[in-house]
Every structure is written in C-alpha cells, then in structure tokens.
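FORM 7B - TANDEM STRUCTURE REPORT

SECTION 1: FIRST PROTEIN
SEQUENCE AND TOKENS:
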Amino acid sequence: MRKKIIARPIVQLCFTIVTLFILWSCNSDSGSNSRGIEVIDIEEALKNAGEVKLSDYASEIRYYTLESDTSALLGRIADVSMDENHIFIPSSDFMKTLHVFARDGKFIRNVGSKGRAKGEFMAIRSIIPLEDRNAVMVEGGNKAVIYSLDDVKTWEDIPFDKFLAGQESTSRQFNGRMVTSYSQNIQNIGYDGKGNFYLLTMDKKNGEQWLVMTDSTLEKKWEMELRRPVKKELKMKLPNGALVQFPPAYYSGSLYLNDGECVFFHWLKDTAYIVKENCITPRLAVDYGRFRKIENAGNEDDISAHIEYESKSLIFLSMRIPELFDEYADKNGNGHLIYDKIKNRAILLKPYEDATDESHGNVCGAFYNDLDNGMPFWPLAIQGKSMFSFCDAGKFMELSRKYNSPKMKEIASRINEESNPVLIEVVLK
C-alpha cells in the first residue's frame, strides 16, 4: 500500500516535467518556470496540525473602530475588499449600496445603488478596487459598474456579457415576477492594476470554460479555452448528520491575481496555473497523499482544498477535513490551512472557540495571537503587507475582558454593542 502512495507523486512529477517542457516555448518570460512548481502537501499539513503563532509571520496587530455613521450601520460583514487607502463593504440591507471607509475606519461615503437602471447593480458578487483610476468596480454577474472615488456621481457601465456569444435563456416565475437565467455566465473577474480585466466564463450546459482578457473599452485582447470541468453530484453532510444531495452540476475553479499574474486554480484537478496570452503554465499543486479522493466515491468524504488568499510569504486555504481530524474542523467539517512559501511547509491550524469566521459565523482554525495576547486571528482580506479581519462590537467587548490585551481593552472602552464591527489589521513581516 505504501508503494502506491509513493509512486503517485513520481508519476505526477514526470507529467509536470513533460508539461513544463511543452509549455516552455509559449512563455517568453521564463521567470514563472524558473521558480519551479510549489507543492502543498496535505498529509504533511495534517501531521503538522496545531498552534501557529502570529508572531512567526507578523510584526504588529492594530485595532480600529469603524465609524458608526447613520448611513453606514453594519451587521455581519459577508464580504470586504481593500486598496491602499480604502475599505469597501457591502451594506447589510441586502447589499443595496457599497460603503466606503478610510483605512483608519473613518466613513467616507456610499457609492452605487441596487437596481436595473444604468449605473445600478442587481447584486454585489465581487468588489474590485481600481487603484490606478481611484475607482471601484462592483460586479454582479454579467454586468459591472465602475464608480469614481473622486466624484460620487461619476460612473461607467461595463457590459461584460457581450463576450457570452450565443447564450441561451430560460424564464420562470419567482415570487410573482419573471426571472431569466442564461446558459453562460461570468464566474470570476480579476484585475491586474494595469487596465486589464480577466473574465472566467462558463457554459452551464456543457461545462466549457474560457478565460478572456479585455479592458474597460471591451476590446478583446485574447481568449483561451481552459480545461473542461467535471460534472458531479454534490452531497453535503449537515451538522445533525443528515446527508443532502444536490442535482448534478459542473464544478470548475476560481481566478485570482497575485503580483499582477493571473492565477487559475482548478478545484477538481488540484492545480493552480499562471495564465498568459495563449499560454497556461502549472504554478502549484495540492497533493493529498493517502487522503486523495477515490474515483467515483461520494463527495461527502471529499477533502478538496480551496485557495482563499495569497501573500508574498503565505498561501491561505480552506478545506474539508477528514473525519480522522475532526477536532480541527468546524461544525460543517471545514478547516483552515496555511502554506509557508519560504519554508515549503503546510500546517493545519488549530481551531479556537473565539475565532469566528464573520462571513459564515463558524468557529474556525486561526493564528494564536501572541503579538498582544489578544483574540485569535484569521484574515478575511489581504492587501499589500497587511491581513484584515473584523469582529462584532458586542463580541469584541466580551473578548476584551477575556484576553489580556491592552489594545483591545482601549478600543472596547470607546464602543458599545450598537457600534459597527471592529477592524483588525495584522502587518506581515
């Protein structure tokens, strides 16, 4: 049995070497290949499960109060995005607008509104800062709107759906109104800070997936068909042990930008690729070792990982945890891992009762906060050399009494239970 476990990485390595040789000619900049392919070893991460000190990776922790302006009262923060000078948070009332705060927590203004008219959005699916234009883009599916941060009345509609050629539509009644759904949609949008957008599109009928590069003029610079995703039945265990089965659907991957490079992470192939014009190059792989999913097995035992964020030194992942390591999982069976890019080491983080994922409300794996002896920390966003998280004001006040952090106690003395959540910034080394 052990021989099989060892043989699989050797086969993968041979495939990777051949793939790199083939792709070398399509990459005029050999820097990506010269770095080699990083491998995140899940077996190692589970063996290394335990406490990770924040001071190992960070030099300072700061706490800010988000100004409780009457036009920006926040509940649970489900999403957040940042640039060098701003914090962008969707409103709690069904995302009807986008709140803009300064990095020190001071409220600046609201931008945009929910609706079907020009300059309005139907949903806030992703928030993309455009620092080179001092603007922010709100993307809600196949349409996006760019709002200027210099002049709140200046906006620009970006109809990205023009790239979804020949899509079919179906209509149905829902809550007394007609709702139209399309066979093709835009799954992710990335921005490289140089005027270029990367659109990850998918046809829900056959799973075809394309990556399109364009700019705000919607001039198509190039497009590439990506590896076709796999159609699966999704089964999910509920906290009470019940098993829920969903209809078959295509599960593919996600797109993010790292240091200006477009990275496509294929969930089912466990591989991340750097994508350039007419070229896709393997960048990192996730190796599950003996926990690798058996083909055709029910995915209630699937332990596939998902990349959440990446900094210069760390990759942050969430993952379904094998039952053998239940003590490291939240009530839904999920856990948090980090991959140290400097030490080439993966670690499953110990969960803490006081480490709550504000976007889902679950107890989760986190860093032990030895910087100021405060509450445990897990990032909800990363920008530059800083990681960010939030904590409900009432809970923050409670935790300030539990932990011996002078910084937490000082902030707690200036807020009440009705205040906006507290912003936590951790400065990476």
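SECTION 2: SECOND PROTEIN
SEQUENCE AND TOKENS:
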Amino acid sequence: TPLSPMDSSSPSQEGLITDLRIMTLEKQLNIELKVKQGAENMIQSLTSGHRDKKLLQEAQQMLDDSRAKIEFLRMRIMKVRQARQQQHARGDAPLSNGETTTGK
C-alpha cells in the first residue's frame, strides 16, 4: 500500500504519514477529553446525589484512566512533532505541504 511504513517511501509520503499519525492521535485525544469530562460529570452527580459507593469508585477509576491516557496521547503527539521538526532541521523530510526543506 502507498502509506505502508515498510515500503521505501519518499520524503513527501513520510510527511503525509507523520501528518496522518498526528491527526489520529489528536482525534484520540479529543475523544479521551470527552470521556474525562463525562467521568467528572458522573462523579459530581454521584457526590451530590444518592452516593452509590461502587458507582463512584468506578467513575473515579474511569477518570484516573482517562487522565493517564490523555497524558500518554499528549506525549505521543509531542514526540511525533519533535521528530518531524528534527527531520526538517536535517533537511531530509518534507514540510507539511509536501515540499522538502532542501528546496527539491
């Protein structure tokens, strides 16, 4: 396939793959932020309402898991962006518009 990482891809294909990876991670991050918000809302509702301890514990665990996933996704996005910037600095990777930094 044209976007397979195992193929010997051109610099412009590598740039597109990197951009797709960042977009996918950002989409996952947005979903996880919504999960976190839902868990926070559930905790708020449970603490002000009937106080089901088991449900409250599950919501708190969901919130903790979501926070960990958010932190992981933010780190992955940062690492992918840093790797792209390092490739650009070396001149062996395309800019996001597909042009190379060497002007080729």
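SECTION 3: OBSERVATIONS ON SECOND PROTEIN
The helical segments are 11-48, 53-90.
DSSP finds two helices and no strands in the chain.

SECTION 4: SIGNATURE
Preparer initials: ____
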